[in-house]
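Handout, tutorial session.
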Amino acid sequence: MSTLQMVSGTEKSTTIPMIKLGTFLLMLPLLLWLFLLIILPHLDLLTVSLREKLGYREYAFSLQNYIEFFTEPLYWNTFVRTAVMSIVATAITLIVGFPVSYYIAKMIKGKKRNLLFMMCLIPFWVSELVRTFGWMILLRESGVISSFLQWAGLVDGPVELLYSDATLMVGLVYTSMLFMVVPLVSVLDTLDDSLIEAGYDLGGSTYSILREIVIPHAMPGIASGCIVVFMLTLGNYLTPTLLGGKDSLWFTEQIYNQFITRFNWESGSAFGFLLLFLSSAIVFVGLKLSRQTLADTVK
């Protein structure tokens, strides 16, 4: 072996560890964030959920907190209601968001497209609290809509549009629309326009092209958007509380009551993990029904 080959081999063996070290240093902030803010707190909550308080600083291992969830109809029914309404809100968000996303991705170009996409982003420049209070100003008895209806002579007195399931659904769809539009626009951008033109040239109708070309191509974006919207809606606390009122029966309110109102961290931790496990199960079933994988949704 020549001296040049020996030097080259030494340089390669030195370069590989340096590359691995550089990659590790780049990933270190993300790893610390995952461990300190997600993994470690969840492990602690899991430990808390698997114990029962016997006395002052006296605890014993127990599954009673989980058993309480399944044996108490209020908790179970509240979760079922939350899951069903979250699924409905996700479906409505998809139905409303898909045409908007297709129009942005395929129907307009240039500055008009950027302007329309910016209009979708602008409401999310303010906090969810401000946006929710905006809906309350519109829908309350002394709000804009009630005042307009009275001014137009359509109603005789103030109309209360808050604190109903319909109002709650409007708020949920509004607060999550962007998280459906963005992945759909991204995936529809990659659809070749010539495929749609070929479909029309071969005699296909708008419906058949949508069913055979557009939707199959957009399915990863649909799955990704639905997962994000569903998880955000299921774990939403502010919108159900403000727009649905104290009788909205949202599961996150039950978790809040256990932690803050009853100071029962054991049950609150158990309910939090049950929300995580059951929502993950629903997402898994949804992926199976749509024939998508989790890897496809994050591409």
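The second record follows below. Compare its token runs with those of the first.
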Amino acid sequence: MGKQQDVGGTDRHSGSGAAAQDATDGGVEARLALAQDPGTAHLTLIDLAADPSPVVRRAVATRADAPAQALRPLTRDHDREVREAVARNPSTSIANLLRLVKDADRWVRWAVAGNPACDESVRRVMAQTADKELRGLLAESRDLEPELAARLVADVSPEVRERLAIHTHDPEVITALLADRTARVRKGLARNPRTTAAHRSALAQDPVPDVRAALVLAVALDEADLRLLVDDRSVQVRMAVATSEVVPSHLRQVLADDPDEMVAGAAREFRPGAGASPVVRAPRVGHRAAGAGRGRPGNNTGR
């Protein structure tokens, strides 16, 4: 990862040169080309960070080799997309990330969550924010400090706890979330491939059919647990067993004589690879499609 460098008396691209001066005095296209040119001097990038065109400033904001003097003022740029570009830039300093994670615009804050330069100090701010989505993005972080994970286990938002349940690697956090009173949180755990056999056995006996069905569709279970689910009182759960890609065929065939004809038919007609068993997708941290407007990464809205 590159680091921001203050420009002192010397610069590896010393001076802006006559050509650079001509470009900065020219039109937007010329200045944009200069901002994107790997050979452009740091001093010129600093000048371009104050360019009247947001397109040019955005180009400077995306550069991993941009000097600190260029990126610093861009964290306060009036154009949201410029600030968002700085928030994504892996060379942005921690001080600037701490400023941007408190930005008034949610997309800027969410972009900080995906920056590989984020450290514990930034994550602490994220854990304390009122922005539910930002806390949710934090919950999806792989390298989450135990203290912060413990805070999220008790988060007021079931969605945040659910996202933690799906993505956590911490056995202690998983054990704590097994006791969560909200079914969607336990359902998130059921989809987590990092649960232990003991965790899965507990989830296989969850009182909510949605949880048991999610479990059998998502992860491989011990045969003892599967035999219980084959005889589950819920048609939804037995249908999940009949259509799961991770259930051994000899157990699926037990359901070929199920009293529910839809379950029996699904078991008899099952073909590997033809189903649509849910998978745990990688976190969409701070991602926004080009031209996207309202809403968060995923399907929620609001700050």
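Points raised in discussion: Confidence is low (pLDDT under 50) at residues 5-16, 276-287, 289-296, 298-303.
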